[in-house]
Write a structure and sequence with these properties.
alpha+beta; Alpha-Beta Plaits; 3 domains; Globin-like; Ubiquitin-like (UB roll)
């Protein structure tokens, strides 16, 4: 039975195991705290060992170990314990053993922090920033700069978060975002990212109206988007770690954003992003630009995204709700004005109501639903609870139809010419679904999507 002799700085111990097992398997079978982070797939180096003796008693490197060894330019004496299989006795020394190494891999050493060791995923990575902001910052008071940049982060951040993106980091006036953590379907990832980018552009247009009024300036938003494999994990000092993505996909996305700035286009994406969504996306000119990005050995096919070819239910509702936000209180006030006009008897339900608070509650209820349109299971419990409370207030089933008509009228009043038939149809479906959930008549599977609009879960 082959033996492994472990040489450590202050001790030596010997373990026996059946031939054919890996060094890592032997370590774990004997209770040795042998660090490993990639589930023994040869995709990291945390289990590496120095082979002191017995070179001839290990099988040749696997293809996975060979790739790592070539990348790191390892000598023959460095082996991955998860890949190196025993045929006889060997003497090894673990290379990740001290407290600093342990803390970098597993904070506290006793048990791994979920996600800290990293895992592979395919994600859409977005970079965006606004042009010439440095010049603006240099010429204005710091408080004004912070105020405006926070409005920018709020506007673009909501476009990201509403589409199940994760804000990875802020970099001056730049943002890096990931789509969508935990999602394995490339089409859903890329469509969510594209939808977020288009909504970010619309929100930037609204922000520019404000910036012009307050500072006499407009800003150009630049977005770069790429899809591909990354390693996701928590990095940083053990007391302040943050989830992030690392890999060439991130570098390419950053370079695409830089290319968008050079080309003076707002939204530039790689072919890898556009391909999974097929014909759903409108691109300028229709023909990809093939170019070699700075720092990249190979060329990439890039397309300027200008819109969606088919009206997307979620995009329609979320975009128009974003338009309402600058006039949110007016929208809520118009809703109650129309509600009481349609059914004066409903005033009796609000005799003791603080309408400032009531309007905020209305907007919050709609906002929660709008933000969760393509992940509706998370919205159902909130609406079900609200429906039960409505019963206690004296709300009857027929009142929901009146409320739906009032909401559509308020939307038309506030959106004006943007309240198209597609917008009406999409919002009517949302209100119908909300009503059914609050009455307990709907399942969590989702609303009945309007026939003329694309469902966010429809097959590609």
């Amino acid at each position: 039975m082959p033996r492994i002799t472990y040489h450590e700085s202050d001790r030596e111990f010997i373990c026996e195991h059946d031939a054919g097992g890996t060094i890592l398997e032997v370590s774990l079978a004997h209770g040795i705290a042998h660090y490993h982070a990639c589930d023994a797939k040869g995709r990291c180096t945390t289990c590496r060992v120095l082979l002191v003796a017995g070179h001839e008693n290990l099988r040749h490197r696997t293809p996975a170990e060979g790739r790592v060894a070539r990348q790191r330019r390892w000598p023959d004496e460095i082996r991955l314990a998860c890949q190196a299989r025993l045929t006889g006795d060997v003497v090894v020394r673990r290379l990740v053993v001290d407290d600093v190494d342990a803390e970098l891999i597993y904070p506290g050493c006793a048990s791994p922090e979920p996600g800290c060791d990293g895992h592979e995923a395919s994600l859409a990575v977005m970079f965006c920033d606004i042009g010439d902001f440095t010049t603006f910052a240099a010429g204005h008071l710091p408080h004004d700069v912070v105020h405006l940049v926070n409005r920018y982060y709020q506007a673009i951040g909501e476009a990201i978060l509403w589409n199940h993106g994760y804000i990875d980091k802020y970099m001056g006036d730049g943002i890096m975002a990931l789509f969508s953590l935990g999602e394995r379907d490339a089409r859903r990832c890329c469509r969510a990212a594209i939808r977020a980018g288009l909504q970010a552009m619309a929100r930037m247009a609204e922000l520019n109206h404000y910036a012009e009024r307050q500072f006499g300036r407009r800003f150009d938003l630049r977005i770069g988007l790429h899809y591909g494999p990354v390693v996701v994990g928590r990095v940083g000092h053990a007391s302040k770690r943050q989830l992030t993505a690392i890999g060439d996909t991130v570098n390419v996305a950053s370079r695409i954003e830089a290319q968008a700035k050079e080309l003076r286009v707002s939204f530039l994406a790689s072919q890898e992003v556009v391909s999974p969504v097929g014909q759903e996306v409108l691109v300028h000119g229709g023909t990809p630009l093939r170019t070699r990005l700075r720092g990249q050995a190979r060329s990439h096919r890039l397309l300027e995204i200008v819109g969606l070819s088919t009206p997307d239910f979620v995009f329609v509702v979320q975009s128009t709700f974003a338009q309402l936000m600058p006039q949110a209180d007016h929208f809520a006030a118009v809703f109650y004005e129309h509600l009481f006009r349609l059914d004066p008897s409903l005033r009796a339900l609000f005799t003791r109501t603080d309408f400032v608070r009531q309007r905020r509650m209305l907007l919050n209820m709609i906002g929660v639903t709008v933000r969760g349109l393509d992940r509706l299971d998370g919205v159902v419990p909130t609406l079900r609870d609200l429906g039960r409370r409505h019963v206690g207030y004296g709300v009857r089933p027929e009142h929901y139809e009146t409320a739906s008509r009032a909401l559509l009228s308020a939307l038309e009043n506030c959106l004006g010419g943007d309240f198209t038939p597609e917008v009406r149809e999409a919002w009517a479906a949302v209100f119908t679904w909300m009503r059914d959930v609050m009455l307990g008549d709907a399942v969590a599977a989702g609303p009945i999507w309007p026939a003329g609009l694309a469902s966010p879960t429809s097959p590609g």
